[in-house]
Amino acid sequence: MNKIDNHMPTAEIQALDAAHHMHPFTKGNEINAKGARVITSGTGVTLSDSEGNEYLDAMAGLWCVNIGYGRKELADVAARQMAQLPYYNTFFQTTHPPVVALATRLAQLAPGDLNHVFFAGSGSEANDTNIRMVRHYWASLGKPDKKVIISRKNAYHGSTVGSASLGGMTPMHAQGGLPIPDISHIDQPYWYGEGGGKSPEEFGLERARCLEAEILRLGEGKVAAFIAEPVQGAGAVIIPPQTYWPEIQRICDKYEILLIADEVICGFGRTGNWFGSQTFGIRPDIMTVAKGLSSGYIPIAATLVSDAVADVINGGDFNHGYTYSGHPVACAVALENLRILDEEGVVDHVAKVAGPYLAKKWKSLADHPLVGDARCIGLMGALELTSDKATRAGFADEGAAGQICRDHCFDGGLIMRATGDTMIISPPLIMQESDIDTLVARARSALDKTYADLKERAFFNRV
Ligand code: PXG
Prior knowledge:
The protein has helices at 10-20, 28-34, 60-63, 72-84, 97-109, 123-140, 161-166, 170-173, 191-194, 200-218, 244-255, 276-280, 307-313, 328-343, 346-363, 400-411, 433-456; strands at residues 39-43, 46-49, 54-57, 114-120, 148-152, 183-186, 223-228, 258-262, 286-289, 301-306, 371-377, 380-385, 414-415, 417-419, 422-425. It is an alpha/beta fold. Strand 11 and strand 12 (380-385) form a beta hairpin.
């Protein structure tokens, strides 16, 4: 009687959804009144809904379905592992083959000497692990006061109490008593929005030096680590100027601050290398991975740890771990996903084919009257909607233009996200050139319709 399947009428699914399911980051009453869109299946880069509509998914789910939908190999591996050993923990002096194989593979793939892996179930959990690990690391070295973690405004590091505190999203901090103590946030390298008349290079250096200023303000003896995404994802695909990361690296080295690269979005090919750290020449001490690790087919995440940090942590008990740390089924699925990424040359495809092609097509959208900036790197990109290209002015009703555009995208068969008035994409990495043509054509059509709507609704009165 309670079976929810694809044959149930959409309205019935929506009614049950409204009655019982609470959606993340959503105005509950609004979605309940309207009825959620019911997604029922996916193949390649395409999703289908319960009404038979098809969408090109330019968000790869939530920045995660790197190999695309419908890869049966992953389902087969999961079924085999479930039959053999569906679960065992790694807490009590035990291990199992899938967790060993995945840790070994990650150590091979990761840059530098990130040879040690602590598993978690989500990016948020892995970042919570990082908070405890870096503080415990310094305490173990006799420096218990080195516990402040510096992060950035508008960073996204997760939704648990710890990881949301690391993140710099003010609407998240406003709920539930965040942030926890000893986290501090510096300004982000968002040149389009905050760079004013400065060159990107000058601005990148200036924003990197905010880290040095913060370390000096707090005192080097108080700072444990700096955490950042190589490219801010949820913050609206903020690609730092070329000068930013080298200066950040110099500062972390100079002041003995651990550098944590949050690769939850940038990892596993998104920027055209296995990791964003390689794209930007970052040498992290710790790396957070999730999402693309399993292409979202199953929840799994990890903290990758350098030899030096692991040496200290392994010196005693680390009183930390999750029931599902190194879950055998999740590890087996992740391994199969990494095999596909590797053997099918998906990362190279992003670097040599899809990334350059997207760059050419995506940047051509900058000529649209509504677009103030069209930027991308690898297979992630953003369009800044503006009411005045010359001044980069936004709109009086912030976020409304983005939502109008997002709705036109959906109606036109394209899933593109709005973050405020910035449209963002992060499609599956297996996109072919013809998919990119479709993506960009649908995006342009949605922009045209949005522009017409905004004019009609007098959104441009401000300028
Ligand atoms: N770090 C980064 C860089 C992320 O993007 C997390 C950590 C947390 O991962 P989990 O698996 O705990 O969600 C993320 C997640 C959005 C959006 O609106 C982005 C994420 C999650 C939810 C929404 O773009 N990223």
